[in-house]
Design brief:
four-stranded antiparallel sheet, 9 strands, 4 helices, elongated
């Protein structure tokens, strides 16, 4: 089962390396990882997506809590939360299908962030299913490049 783990850490040199090492040293995979400072620049928020059964996730959580720079670990999968991901797609459609790219972008509440005579670069945010559906609709139109952020998530009150 896929889990979203939120980790509050001190914003110090080497913290990311130690956390990634914890996962790789135990044979666990990080599917996506997002890190950014919080309102307090001394603290960063990490959102880690990984897979495993309850026992594996419990082991990961315990090991993360043992790291000195870790302030708080929360498995958001056990709570109500809001998640989003962002994708930027560069599309090079044939001239007769350029309008189709714009229609698809509008349907998914995306926006064109750059354009040239031969390409559109579009940005969409949403959950996995929305991002996946958007990419699949653009695929036959000539995707040149895709960049995804990975998940970010926050617990609901």
């Amino acid at each position: 089962m896929r889990h979203i783990i939120s980790v509050l850490v001190e914003n110090k040199f080497g913290v990311l390396s130690r956390i990634a090492g914890l996962f790789s040293g135990r044979g666990f995979n990080i599917e996506t990882l997002s890190v950014a400072p919080t309102l307090d620049p001394q603290i960063s928020q990490m959102t880690i997506v990984t897979a495993g059964d309850d026992q594996i996730i419990e082991q990961i959580t315990k090991q993360l809590n043992k790291l000195i720079d870790v302030i708080k670990v929360t498995d958001l999968t056990e709570k109500e939360f809001v998640e989003r991901e962002m994708v930027i797609v560069k599309v090079s459609p044939p001239a007769e299908q350029r309008a189709e790219v714009l229609r698809t972008c509008e349907i998914f509440r995306g926006r064109v962030v750059d354009s040239s005579p031969k390409t559109y670069t579009v940005l969409v945010t949403g959950d996995d299913k929305k991002i996946g559906a958007f990419i699949e609709l653009l695929r036959p139109l000539g995707i040149k490049e895709i960049i995804r952020t990975g998940k970010i998530a926050i617990g609901r009150e």
